[in-house]
Request: fold
Amino acid sequence: MSKIKIMSENLANKIAAGEVVEKCASVVKELVENSIDAHSDSIKIDLQEGGLKEIKITDNGVGMESEDALLSFQRHATSKLTREDDLFFINTLGFRGEALPSIASVSEVDLITCASNVGTHIHIKGGKLEINEPSDARKGTIISVSNLFFNTPARLKYLKSEQYELANTVSFIEKLALSYPNIKFELTNNDKTLVKTSGSGNLLKTIHEIYGLNVSSKMIEVKGSTDDYDMEGYICKPEILKSNRNHMITIVNGRVVKNNDLNRAINDAYYTYKPDIKFPIVVLKFETDPTLIDVNIHPTKQDIKLSKVNELYNMIVNTIKNKLYKELLIPNAIKDEVTEISIPTTMIKNEIVEEKASNFEKETKENNYQTELDFSIAENSEIYSTNTQDTIINPELKKLVLYPVGLALGTYIIAQNEEGVYLIDQHAAQERINYDKYLKALKEEEISTIAPLFPINIELNAGDYLTIKGHMNILTDMGFVIEEFGLNTYIIKEHPTWLKRGYEEESIHKIFDSIISIGNRFDRVKFNEHLAITLACKMSIKANTRISTEAQEEILNELVNTDNPYNCPHGRPTIIKFSIYDLEKMFKRAMN
Reply:
């Protein structure tokens, strides 16, 4: 007797549900994506107990006829692929035909849909059809899912608390709303509205509706393109960073994706603008030919494969860097005030009207005050080239004249001008200055060297000695003249002139340490970056060190001429501003 048997369709659907449906947010994802594919411009998601009790989706899409409604619960039934070649030109969010039958096999599903004059009502429990009858003729679809995993206890026990399941759903709907700003989304839980967008079609307004004013007013519009990819969206100023990558939202052909290549490019573009453990808020949309991406690598379709990754990487990094270079990124010390807020005219008009914030936004978005903005974008919005050589770096900051008036705590330079008072971290500022100097020197083709009066001896252990010997070409290219001198010792007869005077031997030790740490994984660009950061940190003035007014003035003058005067190479801020209004507000001179 044959041991191999074909499993029942209901059993196959339950197995597929383990891949497609992991939690309540997975159900919401599949159903809302179906609503979007049905050309809805208004989608409402109603949850009971975070979706653990019921998930209900109401849309105004094209709906389904009775025959299609019943067929949609059959495995691999789809209207989105009709022939094999369509797999290479996917323009819809769903296409597998697995979601509805998988969900229906592990829950109770109630569907009311209409595409013409007569609607259809279908009720399925645990994969078994219980009701199939005509219904009211309301254009669109209403689908509710209740008692999720009631017949699969092994899956049911892995559902988390109401708050955990709700947080995942809220996060997904927020990202989807940012992907489709032209669609009106509303999410409620236990009849309380948590997310609501207007469907205005304006991405910046949607960012404001999701994140609030404190974030939306600090977003910067970016646009870039290559022969194969078009990118547009918004990036945040480095002053509003997050502790995880969840707010780095990337959308490819309308699909929210989590792709390591895209995340790496965005993160690299913020290099030295932020600490490594912090991440920016970005909403970036990419459009490309469907043949250049593969969305069919995972059942949830949340990751994709990209073609021409290097070209895309360079475009993302250069476009974001160019834009950050052009922005005045000095953060205000007082962050809670929104009465005076500077918003670039290329982003939004400076028209502010007070509105009441929802309780949920107050609790989860960390902003205590909301306003409504006029989000019309200027017609002459600039598209930034990927060529960094034409960039005018920090034009506004280069006009900034700061007058030092003292030193606080032996660490912070106090400066002022007609706009307010500035605090400058002297170590971070000089670290940025030195970093630029070292990085520029390391890139120079013509190297100027000097012979010390007494040659410098560097003694190493045997392993490090051999590592340096294997990378001697690196030191030679940098301008060092080195000879072996006894057991595990090198003698430095000439070195580059850019080594800080009086700290030559210490600097050479740092250079040796950098070479030893990379081992056989040498990359010249990364090596130069790492070395410049290391030398800049060690050779800069330390905190709690008193310096003269002349030295303070020199630091300020040199800082404004660096490529990124707002952050040290490790991403910490160098300068913070107290506007005149901030000061008057604190001292109650301004009461409004």
User: Anything to note?
Assistant: The chain has 19 helices and 25 strands. The first helix runs from residue 9 to 20. Residues 336-392 have pLDDT under 50 and may be disordered.
